[in-house]
Please model this.
Amino acid sequence: MKQIVIISGKGGTGKTSLSAALATMGEPLTVADCDVDAANLHLLLQPSDQSRQSFSTGAKAVIDQQLCTQCGACMDACRFDAIRYQDDRYTISETSCDGCRLCMRICPPDAISMVERNGSYWASGTFRNGWMVHARLAPGEENSGKLVNVVREQSRLLSEERGMETILIDGPPGTGCPAISAMSGVDLALLITEPSHSGFHDLKRVKQLTDGFGIPSVVVINKYDLNEQVSNEIGAWCRSEHLPLIGRIPFEPAVVEAMLQCRTVVEWAPRSVAAREIAAIHRQIFKS
Ligand code: SF4
Ligand code: SF4
Model:
């Protein structure tokens, strides 16, 4: 089974548009949307979910106001500054609570309990060119690396079950734990960047990461014609790093028009230059 991840050093580089376009071309495959903090690949691929499971991000502390004697011990003890005294009562911020349980253990009248947070989920189903696993992390929740692992594992199991030979992964932006979870053990990383100095800087950081894991990488510059000078600098750097630059996608209104129609540019405007460039990228990454 071949696994290909599409990653970028930052958001807004066109990573999801390219993932969606590649997913709708060629042989049926499995798509794994690992950008769980800002999942939007499903908007373009519109999967028909066949199963959905909640994902617990851990327990958070809550205070039973009927039992609380307002001693203040919990607020003094909390190292995460999650407890506030406001409007004549103690309350705990869900987003700041780390779930360490210290306040629960020290509360004299046992007024604090831990409640599981189940607002996050993962789902799997079909889309118009195969199978898809996607997920959503509830706002303010952490543990996205763990949820990325769940999406990867479910994609693998689904592919084995359904005889899919390729998994295409839309990875999270950045170089943190979720990005590492998305790229571990893949056969190829497609690094997408934009022609700006910050995009170039982030590309170098992602390349260090893929090198560290020994993952073969290729580069695509999106909207390369918005700044041809920086695009040329990226091209020269790729040559010096022996990093194949396999595509330069131009800026085209057809890409935006396609997204507004919840389609990919290869479906909406197959004769556009962007669509033809993406078709060439597809041929290169799926050639073996
Ligand atoms: S430690 Fe318990 S009783 Fe004291 S303020 Fe906190 S919740 Fe209330
Ligand atoms: S569980 Fe830990 S982090 Fe959460 S409010 Fe209690 S002491 Fe603070």
In short: The longest strand covers residues 48-55. The chain has a mean pLDDT of 93. The pocket of iron/sulfur cluster (ligand 2) is lined by residues 61, 77-78, 80, 82-83, 92, 97-103 (CB under 6 Å). The first helix runs from residue 15 to 23.
